[in-house]
């Protein structure tokens, strides 16, 4: 017997809006409310409202909280200023990625680690285990927060109607405590869509109030509720990796072209952190003879590639594998992210195709991302 999926504080709201629900990492989540293409376009041109309450929040506090996180994660977390956030990863001793994370420094001795829903327990267990010997406490705060996101070019204007927080002064990857629609919130300028936007961490009992206030404030700006389906195509166009697809325990940050998040030069803990030796070897490998590289692929036809489909050369030799694929509403063509042999990873390389159920469909190799917003 399987456990029933968990429901967010906004579950009844989604159902009242006619959302198509789906099981995602043990949560019942809205996949779409109507047309996923319309939801995608709304975020690119106006604004979209998301329920992301399935994400996993873990609080780390104490005199050695920074030291613990520098030991447990690959980034330089001690160097993050209060009120700022950092994208980072947690790896195992062999350098394999356990999850990619955002870490917010809420106070001098307080951090919030936000993990993917599917990995939240793994991250919690790893941080708890790695905390041994540090004057720091790791707390599971997954039930303490609901998370709403408003994303898209109209999102700053919409949020300004509901808060007197200094949104203009809030930089990308920064967060500040404030009040939104009378509700206490951590207001973070972060997102997973490639657009400007905000993620709002609130107590679960305030989620419905906030959702309704944002919906009302965004009515004239074209705000629409958005599900996980368009969140996936938005992040795909923006070249953002998804755990279980581009990132797995079998890949290192260097394999994924994200070696920049690994900070060998951190000074705390004498620069030592879990996975360091293996990651140094992975960095050297990536420099001299990378086995495969992550690239973008744009279809010349109409057939849609899916994760796991082989990428082939002109002679039919398998040279890689698709990790994510979908129709791109912005480009008007199917797109994919794939790992391909380094010899085929240069943008413009010819003769590359995706094997879609036995037919070799031609694809153009491009650099990621497919889409970058005008700032």
TrEMBL record:
Q: Which UniProt keywords apply?
A: Aminotransferase, Transferase
Kindly indicate where the leader peptide sits in this chain.
none
Residue ranges occupied by any GCVT N-terminal domain in the UniProt entry: 12-266
Question: Which GO terms label this protein's molecular function in UniProt?
Answer: aminomethyltransferase activity; transaminase activity
Annotated substrate binding lies at 199
Q: Which domain of life is it from?
A: Bacteria
**Which EC class, in a word?**
transferase
| Transferase keyword on record | yes
InterPro entries attached to this UniProt entry: GcvT (IPR006223), GcvT/YgfZ/DmdA (IPR028896), GcvT/YgfZ_C (IPR029043), GcvT_bac (IPR022903), GcvT_C (IPR013977), GCVT_N (IPR006222), TrmE/GcvT-like (IPR027266)
Q: Which reaction does it catalyse?
A: N(6)-[(R)-S(8)-aminomethyldihydrolipoyl]-L-lysyl-[protein] + (6S)-5,6,7,8-tetrahydrofolate = N(6)-[(R)-dihydrolipoyl]-L-lysyl-[protein] + (6R)-5,10-methylene-5,6,7,8-tetrahydrofolate + NH4(+)
Q: Any keyword Chaperone?
A: no
**What GO biological process terms does the UniProt entry carry, in alphabetical order?**
glycine decarboxylation via glycine cleavage system
> Which residue ranges does the record assign to the Aminomethyltransferase C-terminal domain?
292-372
- E.C. no: 2.1.2.10
Q: What GO cellular-component annotations does this UniProt entry give?
A: cytosol; glycine cleavage complex
Checking Pfam families in the record gives: GCV_T (PF01571), GCV_T_C (PF08669)
**UniProt record similarity statement:** Belongs to the GcvT family.
Which proteins does it associate with, and in what oligomeric form?
Answer: The glycine cleavage system is composed of four proteins: P, T, L and H.
Q: What job does the chain carry out?
A: The glycine cleavage system catalyzes the degradation of glycine.
> What is the protein's name according to its record?
Aminomethyltransferase
| Lineage of origin | Bacteria, Bacillati, Actinomycetota, Actinomycetes, Kitasatosporales
Gene expressing this chain = gcvT
